[in-house]
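Query structure, 853 tokens:
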């Protein structure tokens, strides 16, 4: 069957833009409309397999409808610039597909759809029109169908003559008459006032058309009130009839051969999708073969032959593929390596096992003088350690390099990197791809002056994190079992109290049921402000429940229930399942997750164990030292505030830190204009909230919630704070301005964070980007410094007895023998406090115990 598909370009553009959340490509350009348009197009090509495709567009100039009715579309609001910016991108994609675009001065896309369908229906078996405009239903006939959007850009419905009749009870051509009577608010077409959709539908069913309705109106049996309405707006009815009718005779050249689909350069289209970050769309296209930079490679037939050619100070590129998932994976299916022009690929066979190959390679892997290059070294080290190989000479990790260059991505897998930077799919020649990635990334790191971040901070951290993961931390399972019983009992008690206050039992974890109890049955309202409304009604999120504290005891009980339930599910019940044969939990420390450079951890997430609540601290008690050992925690004090004072150049704060004055009390003294020794706990608490909140963009409302101040009090407090600390204000404004200009911010050491949010048309998203811009130089510098401290401590202190176990935000946790630990602890403290010379001293607090609490 020969099919012609005609797309309503503007309808699909608007639909995609509003249906898909704001997206940006690797360069920070808005691409949500482009992505949605591309996705729909690739899907319709795959599903319908059309022989011909065309796209029709509106133009900016006024049309014949504007000349007939000057208020035509007068109520239409201008769309965000982000939408218009994507039109040229979409047309570029259509050109790559060799799909023609049609537009005509004085006409709309609908008229071109109607014209092309009318001219081509005799030349093809079926014409399918994809649009979101229901006016197009008037074009439906035997060989012309409409595919209309129901929801978003993925849910569609197909209209043939039978479907139009089923939905409206009318013939397709009668849709013109229906629209003429009911009007169209989106186009500012008046229709007949007071008739409405149902009334119009009934009248057209009865009379067949607008013309016949008015011919027989006087003698008809319809209600007098309806007659009056129709007579009063007769002129509008006939004017609307002309406006809503789609023209089928737009002058122009329309050749079916121009619409022939299928002859396009797949390589160029694939490059386009990769450039804009649409990796899911590239799977539908073939990839070109990219010649490696290092051509004329010689294949070694034997591993011994390969090893023979490696000399001191050579580079070894290697990659072990398809290991079993998990920390201690064993099933290696392929091993590739490359040195100079010689490369070797190994697949396990009957004559030689991977274990044999690894033992032959062991001296090469453990030679520090041979520079190693790979992708995701830490994972490679875990695999090698299962063969009793200690990898040395780590030089270049392409996964880490990809992260340093663009820390805002979600994925840094080898396939992703090859796709984005080499414009091809990963194949068996992955080892050459890693070499090409290394060359590409080396240039970018140099251009963006990221050498220190990559070579001095991130690369040396890999073996440290590897050893922390292998070390793990011991868990007291018996204590967790007891805690599980205690928490379960407490949960039952809380739930009983909640049911009593609610006067009924319900699912406390169900937001919809909680909404009914709190807002409908108990009618709770905050004393100030209002509860945010979501898609399903008034929100029950923690931030909203906090507004209701004090209105009923049920709120504090629900919050306690949530905390207990979360701790039970996330830690108390889950942690014992993660314990390995050595009785320890081995968390994974991730270098390529956060955009600020901070480490994260998973399975379990050690960063998220609450420290401020008593219940959270109890969970820390379950992490213990081996017999004869102690756990030592060294924690940077007020790390971010110290860095903020230095980066902003705020003299008052720098002076306070240098004199060892309590910074929160100092700020309270300045803002409240009282002597330092007269500052109360409450004054200090308010100052502390501001000190930390300002770095995260906290406003008066946030401060009021955090400190229980009134909105006016919070506003006055912030005004005084900013007046006393002009350098903080200057830092915030200058940082935002620079971020808007450059598109990124950076740490003291040059780590960058790109902020595509600043280009968004959405004010809320831009404001989020500005808050990130203010916070990142501080939080990112903090991340850089603690990583530098980890490297110093690891190289100068750590050994088989003194082991680094955890890094949690500003805290490092070690396990060491209890005997003789004082001297070691002082050395670690000294290294951490003197990691880098700043205008303020860094201060480290020490905690020593058998348990991590």
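Result returned for the query:
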């Amino acid at each position: 069957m020969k099919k012609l598909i005609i797309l309503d370009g503007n309808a699909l553009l608007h639909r995609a833009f509003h249906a898909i959340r704001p997206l940006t490509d690797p360069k920070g350009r808005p691409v949500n409309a482009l992505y949605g348009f591309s996705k729909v197009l690739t899907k319709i090509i795959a599903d319908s397999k059309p022989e011909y495709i065309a796209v029709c567009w509106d133009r900016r100039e006024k049309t014949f409808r504007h000349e007939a009715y000057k208020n035509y579309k007068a109520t239409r609001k201008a769309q965000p610039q982000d939408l218009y910016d994507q039109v040229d991108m979409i047309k570029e994609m259509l050109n790559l597909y060799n799909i023609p675009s049609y537009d005509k001065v004085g006409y709309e896309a609908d008229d071109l759809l109607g014209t092309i369908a009318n001219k081509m229906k005799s030349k093809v078996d079926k014409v399918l029109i994809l649009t979101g405009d229901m006016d197009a239903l008037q074009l439906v006939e035997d060989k012309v169908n409409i595919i209309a959007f129901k929801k978003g850009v993925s849910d569609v419905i197909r209209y043939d003559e039978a479907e139009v009749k089923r939905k409206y009870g009318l013939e397709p051509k009668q849709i013109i008459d229906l629209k003429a009577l009911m009007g169209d608010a989106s186009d500012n077409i008046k229709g007949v006032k007071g008739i409405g959709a149902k009334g119009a539908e009934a009248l057209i069913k009865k009379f067949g058309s607008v013309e016949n309705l008015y011919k027989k109106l006087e003698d008809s049996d319809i209600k007098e009130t309806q007659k009056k309405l129709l007579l009063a707006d007769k002129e509008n009815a006939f004017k609307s009839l002309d406006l809503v009718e789609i023209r089928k005779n737009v002058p122009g050249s329309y050749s079916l051969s121009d619409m022939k689909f299928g002859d396009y350069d797949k390589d160029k289209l694939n490059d386009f999708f990769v450039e804009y970050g649409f990796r899911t769309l590239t799977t539908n296209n073939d990839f070109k073969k990219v010649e490696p930079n290092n051509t004329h490679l010689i294949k070694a037939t034997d591993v011994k032959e390969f090893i023979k050619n490696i000399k001191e100070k050579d580079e070894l590129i290697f990659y072990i593929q398809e290991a079993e998932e998990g920390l201690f994976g064993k099933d290696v299916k392929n091993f590739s390596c490359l040195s100079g022009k010689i490369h070797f690929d190994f697949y396990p066979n009957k004559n030689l096992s991977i274990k044999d190959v690894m033992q032959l390679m062991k001296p090469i892997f453990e030679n520090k003088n041979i520079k190693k290059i790979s992708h995701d070294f830490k994972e490679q080290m875990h695999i090698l350690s299962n063969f009793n190989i200690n990898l040395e000479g780590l030089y270049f990790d392409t996964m880490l390099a990809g992260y340093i260059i663009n820390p805002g991505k979600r994925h840094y897998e080898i396939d992703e990197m090859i796709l984005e930077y080499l414009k091809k799919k990963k194949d068996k020649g992955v080892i050459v791809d890693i070499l090409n990635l290394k060359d590409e990334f080396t240039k970018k790191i140099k251009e963006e002056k990221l050498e220190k971040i990559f070579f001095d901070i991130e690369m040396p951290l890999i073996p440290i994190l590897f050893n922390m993961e292998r070390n793990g931390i011991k868990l007291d399972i018996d204590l967790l079992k007891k805690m599980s019983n205690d928490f379960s009992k407490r949960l039952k008690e809380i739930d009983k109290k909640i049911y009593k206050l609610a006067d009924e039992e319900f699912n406390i974890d169900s937001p919809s049921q909680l909404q009914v109890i709190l807002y409908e049955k108990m009618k709770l309202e905050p004393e100030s402000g209002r509860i945010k409304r979501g898609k399903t009604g008034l929100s029950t999120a923690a931030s909203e429940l906090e507004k209701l504290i004090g209105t009923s005891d049920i709120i504090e009980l629900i919050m306690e229930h949530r905390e207990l339930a979360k701790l039970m599910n996330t830690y108390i019940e889950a942690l014992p399942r993660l314990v390995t044969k050595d009785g320890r939990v081995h968390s994974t420390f991730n270098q390529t997750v956060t955009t600020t450079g901070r480490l994260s951890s998973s399975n379990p997430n050690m960063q998220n164990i609450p420290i401020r609540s008593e219940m959270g601290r109890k969970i820390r008690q379950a992490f213990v030292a081996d017999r004869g050992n102690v756990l030592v925690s060294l924690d940077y004090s007020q790390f971010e505030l110290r860095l903020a004072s230095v980066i902003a150049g705020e003299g008052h704060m720098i002076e306070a830190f240098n004199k060892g004055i309590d910074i929160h009390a100092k700020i309270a003294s300045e803002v409240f204009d009282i002597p330092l020794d007269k500052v109360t706990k409450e004054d200090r608490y308010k100052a502390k909230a501001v000190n930390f909140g300002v770095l995260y963009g906290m406003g008066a409302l946030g401060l009021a919630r955090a400190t229980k101040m009134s909105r006016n009090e919070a506003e006055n407090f912030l005004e005084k704070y900013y007046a006393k600390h002009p350098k903080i204000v200057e830092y915030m404004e200058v940082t935002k301005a620079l971020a808007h200009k450059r598109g990124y911010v950076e740490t003291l050491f040059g780590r960058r964070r790109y902020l595509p949010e600043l280009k968004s048309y959405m004010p809320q998203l831009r404001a989020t980007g500005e808050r990130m811009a203010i916070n990142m130089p501080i939080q990112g510098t903090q991340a850089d410094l603690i990583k530098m401290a980890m490297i110093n401590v690891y190289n100068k202190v750590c050994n088989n007895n003194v082991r680094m176990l955890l890094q949690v935000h500003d805290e490092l946790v070690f396990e060491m023998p209890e005997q003789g630990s004082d001297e070691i602890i002082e050395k670690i403290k000294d290294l951490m406090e003197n990691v880098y010379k700043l205008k303020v001293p860094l201060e480290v607090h020490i905690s020593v115990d058998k348990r991590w609490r």
